[in-house]
Design brief:
single chain, alpha+beta, Alpha-Beta Plaits, 2 domains, 6 helices, DUF1697
Length: about 180
């Protein structure tokens, strides 16, 4: 049995793609996922699965399940506890003396982008906001309010040519804590 978290993009935002978490948990359990828990309404789903499935296989299964049951085409990125632990200790912005944690976001990528596409994103004008890309993760620091920034999922996906979904730092750390609770119980 292995535990994962599925991160859905663009659900329950501004009245769009409304999915009740209670219904989503039931749909996933009926499909065969176990110990399904959700965190907040923005689509963070912790679950267990048997077998040796890759995150990409799980992303497709959950995408197809949501599309079949709810009728929405929703981007899904699946990650695990180890990745969240890695993020929690490797966020380069945490080394700054006086960092406002509310400015930090993590963008999870569906696959590792090419070097050319990374350069295309780095060449885009999204100042004064900052990013550092490491494999399938973008560490982000917004110096403008995130909602007013040019650095958004649309720009990231357009330049990198991969699926992306962002979470603020507090949500990212809370997801790790929820994994830790699963290990203890």
């Amino acid at each position: 049995m292995k535990s994962y978290v599925a991160l859905l993009r663009g659900i329950n935002v501004s009245g769009q793609k409304l999915i009740k978490m209670e219904t989503l948990r039931k749909v996933m359990e009926d499909f065969g996922f176990q110990n399904v828990k959700t965190y907040i309404q923005s689509g963070n789903i912790l679950f267990d699965t048997t077998g040796n499935m890759t995150p990409e296989t799980l992303e497709k299964q959950i995408h197809d399940l949501i599309e079949a049951h709810f009728g929405f085409d929703v981007s899904v990125v699946v990650t695990d506890r180890e990745m969240l632990q890695w993020i929690s200790v490797n966020n380069p912005y945490l080394k700054e003396k006086e960092i406002d944690l509310k400015k930090l976001y993590i963008t999870f990528l569906g696959s590792e982008p090419s070097k050319e596409n990374i350069q295309a994103l780095l060449n885009a004008n999204f100042e004064p906001d900052e990013i550092i890309i490491k494999e399938r993760i973008i560490f982000m620091k917004y110096n403008n309010p995130a909602g007013n920034s040019k650095l958004n999922n649309k720009l990231i996906e357009n330049k990198l040519k991969v699926t992306a979904t962002a979470r603020n730092w507090n949500t990212t750390i809370k997801l790790l804590a929820l994994f830790e609770e699963r290990v203890v119980s």
